Amino acid sequence: AQSVTQLDSQVPVFEEAPVELRCNYSSSVSVYLFWYVQYPNQGLQLLLKYLSGSTLVKGINGFEAEFNKSQTSFHLRKPSVHISDTAEYFCASLDTGRRALTFGSGTRLQVQP
Amino acid sequence: DGGITQSPKYLFRKEGQNVTLSCEQNLNHDAMYWYRQDPGQGLRLIYYSQIVNDFQKGDIAEGYSVSREKKESFPLTVTSAQKNPTAFYLCASSMETGRAFFGQGTRLTVV
Known about the structure:
Largest sheet of chain B: 7 strands, mixed
Oligomer: heterodimer
Number of helices of chain B: 0
Radius of gyration of chain B: 13 Å
Helix content of chain A: under 10%
Strand content of chain A: over 45%
Shape of chain B: globular
Structural class of chain B: mainly beta
Distance between the termini of chain B: 35 Å
């Protein structure tokens, strides 16, 4: 069974500082990985996805992620965060059998002035 | 505007009552999903449907039921058998590989 682990439940960071949100996956089959963002009391919005090809994936709002097969990781990064980036971030993998997403437990990013 | 509409936004259920959460999409997507979100647990899959008139149980289907009579609609019923229904419920739809679109969610509270 596929699983996704987000190593940090909360990440506090100061505005304009860089940030990395960690995600590790386990899968013995083809890997399709995603990062979603959720603002309070709202649905999820896709930030970026890795299906194949280049291991460095660029997404919206200045975020990027790197697929690392040897470390089974897909960490999300942003070189300089803004107050508006405060939200919950979810890493997910696609269960190709069910064609449904499996989510990590989420990381709350708190950007402080 | 194309998208997914969930209603109501807030729902209160009495003990022993069944309630139905609505999910409608006008994106012409084949696949639809229901997830439950609890603090610190991420999203867990309740039911999913890849095509009209067909659906499968997800990881936490007990106490829930669904129907998929129309491509656009995938309502979720929370039955009295669900002992801890208070949660945030999210509906999603998808056409291409993994690119899921989410509704704004329904917050269900047992009173």
